Structures are given as C-alpha cells and as structure tokens.
Amino acid sequence: MAYICLLLSGAALLINGLATLNLVPRRDAAVFSLVIGTAQLILGVAHLTATAGRGTQSLLGPAGIFLFGLTYAYVGLDFRLGLGSKGLGWFCGMVGFCGLLLAVAWSGEDPLLSVLWLCWTYLWLLFFLHMALGFERMAPLIGWSLVLTSQASATVPAFLGITGHWPAGVAAAAAAGASLAALLLLAGGLARRGRRSGTGGAAVERPLPGKLRL
Predict the structure, then answer these.
(1) Are the CB atoms for 105 and 58 separated by under 8 Å?
(2) pTM to 2 decimals?
(3) Nearest 5°: CA angle at 210, between 204 and 213?
(4) Which residues contact 138 (CB under 8 A, 6 or more apart)?
(5) What's the CA angle centered on 130, arms 118 and 35, to 5 degrees?
(6) Could you read off the pLDDT tens digit of each residue along the chain, which spans 214 residues?
(7) Residues 129 and 138: beta-carbon distance below 8 Å
(8) In degrees rounded to 5, what are phi and psi of residue 97?
(9) Which of 10, 24, 105, 192 has its CA 20 to 30 Å from the CA of residue 202?
C-alpha cells in the first residue's frame, strides 16, 4: 500500500512541477493534487488500520503517507479556494522538518528510504522559502526540481517496491543519493538559464485571498 502511495506521489510531483513551469494549467494541477491527496489519506487510514498493534516502528510508514496526502490536499484546496499560499508555505516548512526526522528514523532500517526523505525534505523546504518567506524568484528552481526528481525519487522506487526489488544496503542508498543530487544540481542550472533567457517559468500563481476558483 505504501508503494502505491509512492507511485501516486510521483505523478503528483510531476504534474505540479510542470504547472510551476507553466507547462500545465495550475487549475488542472490543483484538481489532480486534491484527488491524489484524498486517495493517499484514504490509503493511509487503511495502512494504519492494517498495521495496528505492531509497535511504534510500524507508524513510520503511515506517517509519511499522511504527510504527503495532507500536502497534496492542501495544495489543491489552496488554489481552488484562493487561500493565498502563506499558510501552505508554513505547513510545508513543518512537513519538511518532519521529513528530516523521518529520514533519521529510517536511516538504520532502510537507508534508501532515508535518502528519499532527504530529497523530499529539500522540496518541501523550497516551497517553504517560496510561499512562506516570499522568495518569488525560486519558482523555476521549484518547477525543475519537482519535474526532474519526481520519477527518480517516487515513481521508480515505487515500481521497484511493487515488484519486490526494493534496493537494500548503504551502496544502493549512496547511488540514489548521488543521482538525486545530480538531478537537483541540473534543476538549479536549468532554473538559472531560464531566468537569464526569460523562459524559466513564471512565479507560482497565487489566487487572491477569498477568490474562489471554479
């Protein structure tokens, strides 16, 4: 069930990244995020129910699912209801801090998952800086980071888990970390080049407070 949620996250990260780069309408991405978030919250409840009574370690998986599900649901509602994104930005900051704690918690049992959580924490931090603290020029970096890491940090690992080939060991985690770091550096380069040429994508559109998106 956790792998299915991870697969859904790969799709949501990709669509939101494309929307940030103005390659997909924000309205479409908002609806998609709301659907994915709702589905993940439902799956999270089911996963929590199935693992009840197995100790505190069994809560780590559902905790991650709920963090992703709430984020996507909030992203969708923020745009559709015109909430202004400030609260969403602070929420992303809190979730990023939780993601860092989860990375530490998984470091012993599953090094690869720990590396993935570090990557997702970085993405949440970008949203925090952009939406909560007002770093408007970060939109191209956010867009490219989401697009380039969506498949490597979510879709591909999800398929590996579903097929029973989830990599174990420090070597696999190190290789994944190096690959994700390279993708994030590439995202930074593309964002800088886009800003210089004026084609890097506009800032994430924020509806006016109180304006309902239909």
Answers:
(1) no
(2) 0.88
(3) 60
(4) 126, 129, 130
(5) 70
(6) 789 999 999 999 999 999 999 999 999 999 999 999 999 999 999 988 887 767 666 788 899 999 999 999 999 999 999 999 999 999 999 999 999 999 999 999 999 999 999 999 999 999 999 999 999 899 999 999 999 999 999 999 999 999 999 998 999 999 999 999 999 999 999 999 977 776 554 444 444 333 333 2
(7) yes
(8) -65, -40
(9) 10
